[in-house]
Amino acid sequence: MTSATPVSVPTDAPARPSPKSPAAAAPAPTARRSARRRELGACGVLMTPFFVLLTTVFLIPVGTAVYLSFFSDDQPGLGFGPERTVFAGLRNYTAVLADPTFLGGLGTVALYCLIYIPLMVVGALALALLLDSGVVRLRGTVQLALFLPHAVPGIIAALIWLYLYTPGISPVIDLLGRADITVDFLGVHMVLPSIVNIALWSNLGYNMVVFYAALQAVPREVIEASVVDGAGPVRTALQVKAPLVRSSIVMVAMFTLIFALQLFTEPMLLSQSTPMISSRFSPSMYIYDAAFTRNNYGLAAASSVILLLCTIALSYGVTRWTNRADAAEEGAR
Amino acid sequence: MPGRQSRRSVLATIAALPLTGALSACGGGGGDTRSGGTSSTGRTVSSRTGRKTRITFWSALRGSQEVVDAFNRGHDTIQVDFQQIPGGAQGGYAKLSNAARAGNAPDIATLEYPQVPGFAIDGVCRDITDLVGDGLRAKLLPQALGLTTFEKRVFSVPLDVEPMVLHYRTDLFERYGLTVPRTWDDFEDAARTVRDKSDDRRMALFPTDGDNHVAAYAWQAGAQWFDTAGGAWNVSLADAPTRRVAAYWQRLTDEDLVFMNAVESRHSDVQIGNGLVLSRFSGAWDAGAQMKARPGQKGQWAIAPSPQWDPADPGVGTHGGSTFAVTRDCADPEAAMEFIEWQISHPDALRARLSSGASSQYPAAPDLVDVGRKAFDRSYYGGQDIYTLFEQEAHKIRPGWVWGPRMTATGRIMKDGLARASGGQGSILGAIRAAQEGTMPDLKALGLSTTQRST
């Protein structure tokens, strides 16, 4: 997320000069040392909660999952013998990677990301640019209306949409039916778009606010300059403003990607009323199913680790790629 | 492992402390009341007699409360605390495995046959081979006990065994001039007649959530989905008999001779309730469920043997049926077994269950069939002696069928595939193959020895 462009998310700006400047100003070496010690102490106090939480809610669970994925309480043969804990090696990993239902889930999520992320980024950016351009009246109200769905918890959102998707009780399907349009939102082909729609509804407003905040930080003189140069509002938005909030776009895309990979709540709830969403629809649902209906904790742990590695690899890939693109752009300038 | 166990029991003790206090206070206040099944009175009773064993029992079966009440009335030294739990698919099995992991499983759990090997492998079921005496063994239908025995060890005791039978509408059969089909070819012809003569009625339903139906059809045709020969789980869901069954139902669904939707659904209720479907395939138990669910259709239904592939070599698969397992956590397995033995073989137990009016279970102990014959209210089925029919069918159950170690998961994948097949994606056989492919990684990750045949 490190950006070479001078304009960035506003919070970056004041953070940069602060740590070094008091130390540089201190004249005597002893005073410098004590100041340094105080600084380290403050760092320690401020960062301890973070590391405590990181350890208890991230490192320990991840460590447990890794352990569970390699060790197993086995009963040889048919499985009715006495249990003994053995090192299972990569057994769970090969099992997961050979499981067509897990690979199918990965495929589903990949398709979901391909539909959802571009729609989300482009949609949120377009809305933010519209709001920023001043075309929209009642800006505050519009912003609130768009942001409000984000305040609805995911499970409630899924319930609301489930109601709107279910034939027989949905007023939407009823209205469409009167216009002679039959849509089965929970049918074979519509299920994924239906889930994308729920996610968009929930998160569009939030990401729009992120973009809008970034746009507020675009220096007015740059925009004035572009207007003086004869750029219309559309051109200003697309060729001046949008490139200046590049780092926010990357950030939103990455967070959206990470959340999308963990797709769980919406399909889990919808699966209650459509057989088209299987119990292993996404990798997260696969993990849940492996642990809680199949009582196969080794398999669940191995698939969790694989999902984690995929997420890390993809996020790293995205950052590397954008950094390189940034550097290339810099070089071209 | 022992360390974890003890920490858990300490925690459990701490958690139970306030509860014990409340109960003893309660018992002190109402110490004279002996009636009622609450634990507070039970505690008082036990302190009076000195040695009374309490057994906890979980079940989702209809009529269980009546059975437990009858047992408790007749027994002094053992008292059973019954808890009605949701059906397996509705979370009953998840509840059981979570309780077992937490170390507070009931003494006796109710398992359907397909779930027995899974719970045995997970160590929830206790190996009760030594507690099943020759007397009890002799009381049970061998095919039923065979389903709960692995490597010569018994993990659960069968309560009922449910041969799949044909429930049909006598009035509608008459209207369309149909006779009861004896072979599957007859059945197909009859289905064609119904489709040709009626727009909205169909002969039967092929359930998209019917993994157990598919299993019963395949079992009848001679399939062997799982087999434990050679100390390994040999998996072959798509064997030749299964392929034959899949092709048969595929043709019936393709030609619109049968409905294809979920059976556990409002849709299916409407089909049966409005007389749109002329017949149902299900276990003997369904006769009682039907009686309870649709009293208005009294006198319209009769029951017949399932059609056969080859009448010269008749066979039947089972659909449903339950067993009782003693859990590993049980403190007094002998007492638990006494209740189980009474429940599966005592005439009073069956009478009590049938008195609920919602059960028509076919007991796994053949001696009880006579009791069922007498105790079952025949009026709904126009006086038909359905227990005699069940008895004939039970003897046709093909021996040697084995359920797999993760049937819930295997069945779910099959259901997913069948649902997609009904939406035009894939086929019935495809769903069966997918179920096998999705099961193998599970078994391998559990560390079981496996082999598989994909033909």
From TrEMBL, chain A:
<feature type="transmembrane region" description="Helical">
    <location>
        <begin position="297"/>
        <end position="318"/>
    </location>
</feature>
<dbReference type="InterPro" id="IPR035906">
    <property type="entry name" value="MetI-like_sf"/>
</dbReference>
<dbReference type="GO" id="GO:0005886">
    <property type="term" value="C:plasma membrane"/>
</dbReference>
<keyword id="KW-0813">Transport</keyword>
<keyword id="KW-1003">Cell membrane</keyword>
<dbReference type="InterPro" id="IPR000515">
    <property type="entry name" value="MetI-like"/>
</dbReference>
<comment type="similarity">
    <text>Belongs to the binding-protein-dependent transport system permease family.</text>
</comment>
<feature type="compositionally biased region" description="Low complexity">
    <location>
        <begin position="21"/>
        <end position="32"/>
    </location>
</feature>
<dbReference type="InterPro" id="IPR051393">
    <property type="entry name" value="ABC_transporter_permease"/>
</dbReference>
<feature type="transmembrane region" description="Helical">
    <location>
        <begin position="185"/>
        <end position="206"/>
    </location>
</feature>
<dbReference type="Pfam" id="PF00528">
    <property type="entry name" value="BPD_transp_1"/>
</dbReference>
<keyword id="KW-1133">Transmembrane helix</keyword>
<keyword id="KW-0812">Transmembrane</keyword>
<feature type="transmembrane region" description="Helical">
    <location>
        <begin position="244"/>
        <end position="264"/>
    </location>
</feature>
<feature type="transmembrane region" description="Helical">
    <location>
        <begin position="144"/>
        <end position="165"/>
    </location>
</feature>
<feature type="transmembrane region" description="Helical">
    <location>
        <begin position="42"/>
        <end position="70"/>
    </location>
</feature>
<feature type="domain" description="ABC transmembrane type-1">
    <location>
        <begin position="106"/>
        <end position="318"/>
    </location>
</feature>
<dbReference type="GO" id="GO:0055085">
    <property type="term" value="P:transmembrane transport"/>
</dbReference>
<feature type="transmembrane region" description="Helical">
    <location>
        <begin position="109"/>
        <end position="132"/>
    </location>
</feature>
<feature type="region of interest" description="Disordered">
    <location>
        <begin position="1"/>
        <end position="32"/>
    </location>
</feature>
<keyword id="KW-0472">Membrane</keyword>
<protein>
    <submittedName>
        <fullName>Sugar ABC transporter permease</fullName>
    </submittedName>
</protein>
